[in-house]
Structures are given as structure tokens and as C-alpha cells.
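Q: Two folds, back to back.
A: First:
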Amino acid sequence: MQPKYDLDKIKFATDGPTFEKAVDLYEKGKVTQFKEELNGFFAIVLGTKPYKVYVDNRHYDQGDCECYLGQNDTLCKHMVAVAIRAVTGGKPLSDENKRLVTQVTCSGKLGELSKNELSVVKKSITGAMKYIKPYNGPSRIWFSYQSSLSEGCNRLAKIVSELPVSEQTAKLLVDMLLRLDNKLCRSGIDDSDGTVGGFIEETVQMLKEYSKLDPFCAKAFNELKDKETCFGWEEPLLDIGHH
């Protein structure tokens, strides 16, 4: 039985420290007696003591663990480790699989994307944006809503951190920021935790680096003229565009 989630889902939707501890448990062979059961996966995870763990095959963050967090309905490293085992079939994880990107960083490589690469990146940005959606539920789903926003921003962070630096990619990033801003201002996203705002700020910082590495990038910032954004994030970029 193949779970309905994949490793990317687990990696981008789990907070960093929990994911890293889960990977450690998995790699040290602490997920034992793994088997498929009903609509999910069961295992004994050797933590401080052996814990019985069950994880749903549709939602990796639904299930049950005997540890303190699991008993308080909080996603724990034991459940995440079992989900990783379900996805990988017990195979080793590659470094790329384990690498967490939660912060936007500039690749530092100059260059453009080919037509094909550009269209792939645009599609993946649109895919990641789907997690950044309006909040209209009862307060009890607040946390899963917040983790959806984080997942969207984590997915975007990975995409944008791998981009080469050029006027072409700067324009792509400016367009992405305007789309995010539009969502924040007009579509009922509740970003009171500042997840999306923080991601926008990090991307603006990266674009400032872009313009140092390739002065032509500043031309892309002209698109921000006369735009009303939610919290004025465009100002530092427009300053660069003027010089």
C-alpha cells in the first residue's frame, strides 16, 4: 500500500526540528516491526522507550503514538519517522531528501533559465501557492491552517533558493511577490503569525543581493512602480531601481 503523501509533503509540512529528529530515528533503525494495517501503517519506534505508533495512509499527521506529544494530539517525531518509513519502503534517504530549506538564500550563480525550465519553475510556484489559501474555518483547524501556510512558504523557499541570478529570474520573483501580496491583501489569508510576510521580506532581501550580483536585475523592480502593497515591502527595491 503506497501512502497518499510523499517525502516532500512530510518535509515541507513538518517543522524543521521534528523532521530532523524523525530522520535520525529512521536512519538509526529505530522504526521496527513496521507493517501495513487497515488504512495505515503500524510500527514500534524505539524512543526513550518502545512506543507503539500508527500513521494514517492519507494524512501522515493523523494517527496515534504513546509518547507524551502523541497523547496530546501533537505531531511527534515518532509518527513522522513511521511516515518516512512508509514512503521510502525502508530505503536510505539521499542528502537531497534530508536537506531542509526553510529560509530563502541566494544561489549566487549568474544565469538564465531555458524556456522549458522557466515554465517548470512557474508551474511549481503556482503549485506551492495553493497551500497559501484563505482562512475560513473554525478555530480548531487554526493549527493545520497555519501549517499549510508554512508548507507553502517552505516549498516556495526551496524553489527560489535554487534559481540562477538574472533579470529574467528577478522578474519572475517580482511577479511571485505581487501574487502573494495580492493574496494577502485581498483573499482573506490570516497571516497573523507572519509566515507569509516573513517569506516576502526574505525574498526582498535576496532580490537586493541579485541587484548587487547583476545590476540589470534592478530593471525588473520597475514593475513595482505605483503598486500599492500590503506593508510597503517594495520600497527598498524601488530605491535600487531608481539608482
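A: Second:
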Amino acid sequence: MDLSTAYSTILADIGASTSLVVVTILGLGLVLWDAFKPRHSAIPWVTAAVLLLLAIFELTKLSEPDGTVFYGMIRTGSLAAFVRFVVLLSTALSVVLSATYLERIKLNLGEVYSLMLFATAGMLVLATANNLVTVFVGLETMSICLYVLAGLMRTDSGGPESAIKYFILGAFSTGFFLYGIALLYGATGTMYLDQIAAALSGTERTTMFWSGAGLLLVGFLFKISAVPFHMWTPDVYQGTPTTLTGYMATASKTAAFASLILVLYYALPDQNWSQAIALIAAVTMVLGNLVALAQDNVKRMLAFSSVAHAGYVLVALAAGTTDGYSGALYYLLVYSIMNIGAFGVIALLEWDDAGGRKQTLDSLAGVGYKRPLLGVTMGFFMFSLTGFPPLGGFIGKYAVFAPAISAGLTWLVVVGVLASAVSAYYYLRVLYVFWMKPAQEDDVHGLGTSRFSVPTSAAAVLVVCAVLLLVLGVYPGLLDVTTNFLPGQGVALAP
């Protein structure tokens, strides 16, 4: 690598990575701020404001051409800007929800927001990496911060338990991931994604290559909670503070999927992976939805729901086409909005002082009448997660299923549709409990008291998420935005 022009390009490279640089500097600044003024009330609001501004800034870059910075280590352009927008928006909304929630459970620590920013920096690197080393650095930066956030509730046994499980299994998957990188380098002589495909052009794939690619995909499948690498998900989601669970379920999954898309598109463009990914997608959709049916705890139900939704995104990736990758990116935006809203509602209704770990769904009977805003917005989120029109979840599922049909994977789409039908039972059960199940007369959990009043900031986030889902559902033309990110024909829109 020729580094003779490093100093002459560094300013341009930093300018092209503005969001990453600002997020990192802000994270360091919050460490100092909290050291001198612990638990300052302005910390979350400053964090959220900066993240929202950066998200808007990324929207202005959606039309930029593709390119790379830092000697080809990080990609720039429209696809990178879109993924950064989704990650930054998810983080900003999670920070706003966390501000009042963490204060209520007495965990409003400044370092929490620093960790979220450092994790977000890792996600921004992971989601735009063009080199396997950069992928690994971003993945580990994100993961280490999430391990700490998962164990934040140290006074409850569920917090340390979830952190330990997440750390041990995450470290194990990292070993697979790193070994896969080493084998791919040995087979191709490069770690740049686009150069890997070029190195394999016209040559026979060796055992070393197949082994490396397989181990690399195992690491990705763990991060996206795909079966059979999903077993950490329900326990970690259940033991993590709820608003942070929503952050983990959306921002980190978006970054991991975006990185997987780049790897499949640039480094492993062969169709040899289609059937394997299709099989994993089918098992993930079926198992995630069936196990979610048996859950009484809302957070565990949403955890297995997130497993099922990972399967839906994998359906698009199994198509192996630019249409599929574009549809997957669009679905990640819709998925993030749906889940942040759903976890936000559950966070506002916690009564067990254990981050919702012990709280059952039936204990929230009749809460829709006591807290109408939460009940109505939860209806938007549950119907969208099911895939009902005219909400964003319906268009999102069309975006991932249509390319699979075009690629000849009709059987996989049939499995996905049937799995979605099964999911309607447990999603609509939430609304049944909220609105139709008689409330407890003695209100033993105090759901009608001021303890569970809805802060203005949290209410704004829930309303914004609900409105965005409606806009994404009634205006499917927004799907066109993602079709220009990768070369090739875009996703055909429904009439």
C-alpha cells in the first residue's frame, strides 16, 4: 500500500466521514462531561440533537456517487449514506426514549450515552467497510460496547446473566469470524471486498476459500440472530434495559446486515450461496415465529420476533440480485422504526423494576384505555410488524419477497407468507390484551397512576414512528430510493 499521499488526502477522507468523526468526538466529550458533571440532565438531549442533525446530513448525501476513503477501507456514496441514516436515526430515537426511562429506573448514567455513541461509531464503520479488517474493527467496537450495555442492570440477576451470555457467545462467534477472514486472505491474497471477487475470477474455488467464506458467514449469522445462531437473543433482550434492547435490535442489526450485503455483493457474488441462505431464511422464519407464540414475556416475544424478521431479510439476500439487496435495505428502515416504537411502548409500561424481565403480557390487560396513546401507537407497530396494509411493514415484506419470486424462490416466499400469518396471532394478542382483556380492578401494578405517565419526548418518538410507518405504507414510491444504490435493475413496484 502506497502511503505517500496520506497527508494530502486525510482532510478529504475525514470530510467524507463526517458522521463517524463527529459521533466519536462526541462520545469522548461526553466522557469528560460526565466526569465533571455526573448525570447531567442535558447529556441525552445534546446527544439526541447531534445524532438527528447527522441523520439529516446523511439524507443530503443520498445522491452521491459511490467511492472509498482511507485508502479504500471505507465506502462512501448513496448506499453508505442510507445505512448511516438508518443507524443514526435509530440511535437518536433510542436516546430520546432512554432519557426518561433510564432516569426512572435510576440508571441515567452519562457513560451509557458514551457507550451508545461508541457502539454507533462501530456500526458506522461496520456498515460501510470495504475491507475485511475494517469489518472486524467495526464489529468488535460495536460488540464490546453492547456487551457492557447488556449488563447495565447490575442490581437484577438478569442483567449480569445476559451480559455474560452475550459476551461468551459473541467471543466464540468472533473466533469463527476472524478465522474466516484469515482463510479468505490465504485463498485470495487480499482483504478488499472488490479485490476478493477479482482474485477469484476464472479460478477454481479451493477448500480454503469455501471454509473461510463459510466461517465468515457464521459470524454474520450470529450478529443478525439467524437460526441456529440465535440462542443468545431472547436472554440478552430480556435482561437488557428495554430502550437499549430496542437500540440493539435495530441499529446493530442494520449495520450487520448492511455489511453482509456488501460482502455478498462485492466479495462473494456467486449464486452458490443462494440455496444455503434460503434454507437458513426458511428455518429462521418458521422457528422464530413458532417459538414467539409460546412467550408470555413481551420482550422475549419481541426477541423471537426479531429472529423471524432476520429471516425475512435473508429471503431477499437469498435472491442474490441487486433487487434483493435493495429490498433488504428498505426493509431494514421499516424494521427499525417498527421495533423502536414497540420497545418504546413496553418500556413506558414496565412495573417490575427488573427491566421488564419478569413482566408478563397479561399483566398489561386494559392498559389501552388507561394510556390511549400507548395503546393506539402500539396498534400501528403490531399491525406493521404483521405486514398489514397500508403500513410500512406491508411494503417492506413486498420489497423482500418480490425479488425472491423473480429469482425462482417461490417456495421460500410461500414459507415467508405462512410464517407472517402465524405471527399475526402473537402480534394481535398484544392488542387484544391492551384493549379487550378486562383490566384488574385493584390495578395492582399501578398502571393507571402517574408513575406510568407518558413523557412528552417519548410520546413524540412514538407518534413520529407511527406516522413514518403510515407514510412508508401509503407512499411506496419511497422504495425507489434504495434501487439506485447498487448497479442493476431496481425493484419493481406494486401497481
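Q: And?
A: The radius of gyration is 22 Å.
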